# Entry
Amino acid sequence: MKTVPVVLTTGKRKAAVARATVRKGSGRVWVNDRPLELVEPEVVRQKIQEPLYMVGDRSKALDITVDVQGGGIVGQASAARTAIARGLLEWLKDDQLRETFKHYDRSLLVNDPRRKLPKRPGGRGARARRQKSYR
# Structure
């Protein structure tokens, strides 16, 4: 039995977790079982495509499948682009590409650790407080 080389990577942002699979193919990218061209809104699609644009034609020989769960659409897009960028780096083994990604945006390679602050008493949220009237 012959094994096909596959690279598995993950990316996280807020509550969103993305798992990307990179394998040899014909340049197709799927996000949650949908072609990347059909992902809406367009801003989200462009955010996911950023690492693919930076790699250029080298990504045309790869198939990438991304499964994203949790969070909202922008958090999912950020998690997906991190997973894709990590997968491309691991597949291509190019140190110059790593530097390009870091220079463009560090969050392409590093998970975003920021989380929502918990709500506190005396207000409607983490920072907002109830107003005082002084009268």
Observations:
- Residues 44 and 74 are 6 Å apart (CA to CA).
- The chain has one domain: 6-108.
- Residues 6-108 form a domain with the Ribosomal Protein S5; domain 2 fold (CATH 3.30.230.10).
- The longest strand covers residues 16-24.
